[in-house]
Structures are given as structure tokens and as C-alpha cells.
Design goal:
about 30% strand; alpha+beta; disordered N terminus; Trna Endonuclease, Chain: A, domain 1; two-stranded antiparallel sheet
Length: about 190
């Protein structure tokens, strides 16, 4: 019955596009988060990038069709991580990254201010992590911030080997609904804590 209801939900929901399914990590996470929100499981969303708008063109009073156009803007401050929200009373915060590299994830993909942000989240009792997709293998991993920091403290490498993900991170098995059920892993982590 549950599967039938979810199938009906999909058929009725025309906003979800499945054309590029599996080709973009962010799309998969956004679809998963929509599922979690729609089913009142969690409230996790993509954070907007903070921008400062300098110049705007407004439509004329007589032209009701045209819209406001931003002509000049810049990034106001560095963004922190991609996603945050609440699940079972716990604050969740994470960064999502994709790599085409078959053997390692370059640390150049993570900025210092993002590392500081994840450190602050975990020190305050939140759950911080990375979701990394190795696109050539179609493998998705959830790497807890504590394991990321452990790696950084114990090596001078400029990348995290795939083997480290296979040993320390959690493999996220893709499914139909939600596409990336990463909260199943958070459940396991919360049981241990």
C-alpha cells in the first residue's frame, strides 16, 4: 500500500524532473530532501548563496510582463556548506561534492571556511558531514566530519583516496524514493551516539 501511495504521489507531482536522474548529485539530494519534507520525515534544504545586489532594472509601470532584472551583484560573503536542516531534533549540516576522479577526492574541493563551519557544527552537537559522489563508479559516500578531520590531522596528502571512503565512510545505496536515502545512515549514527 505504501509503495502504491508513493507511486501515486510521483504521478501527481509534475514538479520533479527525472530526465538527468543519477547524473547530478545535487539534483539527487534535492529530490531526496523534497521527499523527506513532503513526508514530514525531516526538514533539510539547500542554502542560498549570499549575494549583494548593486544594480537592478525595474520594469516600467506600463509593461506588466517584464520582470525585475539584476544587472550587477557579487558574493557578499563565503557560503558555508550546501545543506542544513533538522532531523529527529538534531541539527544536520553537510556539503555535497562530486568527483570524476576514479581513485581520490581532491581536498581543493573543500574550502577552509567550510571546514571551520563543519568543525563548529560538530563541536556544538550537530551532525556535520560530506556527501561525495565518485561519478565514474556511481558510488555515493557519507563521510562524517570527525572522520574528515581525522584524515586531515594524520596526513599531508592533497586528496582523500577512494580506499579511505570505502573504509571510513558510509556507502549510500541509491533507491527509488528517496533517491539517496542518506538519513538511514544518520539513523545508524544517532543510535551509536
Amino acid at each position: 500500500m505504501k509503495v502504491q501511495n508513493e507511486l501515486q504521489l510521483l504521478l501527481n507531482n509534475k514538479n520533479i524532473q527525472y530526465g538527468n536522474r543519477g547524473t547530478n548529485l545535487e539534483n539527487d539530494i534535492n529530490q531526496s530532501n523534497k521527499y523527506y519534507i513532503d513526508h514530514k520525515i525531516a526538514y533539510i534544504y539547500k542554502k542560498p548563496t549570499p549575494i549583494k545586489i548593486n544594480k537592478v532594472d525595474y520594469p516600467s509601470k506600463h509593461n506588466k510582463v517584464s520582470k525585475i532584472v539584476i544587472r550587477e551583484a557579487y558574493f557578499d560573503s563565503p557560503s558555508t556548506t550546501d545543506y542544513n536542516g533538522i532531523y529527529k531534533g538534531k541539527y544536520i549540516d553537510f556539503e555535497a561534492k562530486e568527483t570524476k576522479n576514479k581513485t581520490a577526492f581532491s581536498l581543493d574541493n573543500i574550502h577552509k571556511h567550510q571546514l571551520n563551519h563543519l568543525k563548529n557544527i560538530t563541536e556544538c552537537g550537530g551532525i556535520g558531514f560530506l556527501i561525495v559522489r565518485f561519478s565514474s563508479q556511481q558510488k555515493n559516500f557519507l563521510l562524517l566530519a570527525k572522520d574528515l578531520f581525522s584524515f586531515l590531522e594524520n596526513t599531508d596528502r592533497k586528496s582523500i583516496p577512494l580506499q579511505y571512503f570505502e573504509e571510513k565512510a558510509y556507502l549510500i545505496e541509491e533507491s527509488y524514493l528517496p533517491r539517496l536515502p542518506y538519513l538511514k545512515i544518520i539513523d545508524k549514527i544517532m543510535e551509536v551516539s
